[in-house]
Amino acid sequence: MKILALMAAGLIGAAALTPVAASASGTGQAVVVHERTVVRHHNRHDRWRWKTVCRTQWRNHHRTRVCTKVRSRW
Asked: How far apart are CA 55 and CA 60, in angstroms?
């Protein structure tokens, strides 16, 4: 049990020593610094895309899949 506690304490200590910039890189924002100006490019997933939407319809007494392309924001 003591070995497990020591390993857990070691992992917590190693996580505390990691640089802050490495953990901040996964926020989804790219920051570009030019002299004294900070330019932030916000979430790049906020754009339009074409998505295929399929639904089942009955046509001529048969069940068929009808797919349409819809423009959506994600």
From this structure: 16
